[in-house]
Design brief:
Layout (H helix, E strand, L loop, with lengths): L1 H23 L9 H38 L1 H62 L7 H15 L4 H15 L4 H62 L13
Helix pairs in contact: 1-2, 1-3, 2-3, 3-4, 3-5, 3-6, 4-6, 5-6
InterPro entries: Spectrin/alpha-actinin, Spectrin_repeat
Protein name: UTRO protein
Keywords: Coiled coil
Amino acid sequence: EKAVNLKKDLAEMQEWMTQAEEEYLEKDFEYKSPEELENAVEEMKRAKEDVLQKEVRVKILKDNIKMLATKVPSSGQDLATELNVVLENYQLLCNRIQGKCHTLEEVWSCWIELLHYLDLETAWLNNLEERVQMTGNLPDKLDAVNDALESLESVLRHPADNRTQIRELGQTLIDGGILDDIISEKLEAFNARYEELSHLAVSRQITLEQQLQTMRETDHMLQVLQESLGDLDRQLTSYLTDRIDAFQMPQEAQ
């Protein structure tokens, strides 16, 4: 009777493993939204826990069959053969479910990482847009233009590492058919805004550089003129002091 019960237990265990394989491993999942992906991750975590919890039952079956084999070798040998098949199938099921769970967790992590880098670069684009707008109505002063140019250039020196991460993470998920529509839309919007703002910023940078160069040249010309006028003023003052008649002066002094 004990052998019959153990045989029944082995059959039930095999049936459960077949159902678990159909439910967790043979479904054709499509992850078209973050919610679907997150639900799939949670489901595979539960599946992994469920399968691992059966390890106790498998061990009890194994111990009982070994014990029976010592008492009734003939019955025990037949059950041992069936047990080996169940043990192999159970280990295979554990490995496959753990592997799929790990893969889905990595995919979810990839998605969260992509969102993180998009947030960072969006914050940078917002800052760049603000700096560009600040250059639109500057006072006509050399210091103000110079400060605005330096401020804009400091933002434009932003490294490209984050954008590389965005491109690679997005392409990895899209290639796997994971959230491809959503990611394509996000990347298209981000890249369009990046191109528009970066071109506008570089154009404004060139304008400010030209404006700054013109102001410096004008400032230098005024300085030279001021020095020349100062020299002339001192010369005329000396003429007046010495009471020199105007017709005795050089033509330019007259």
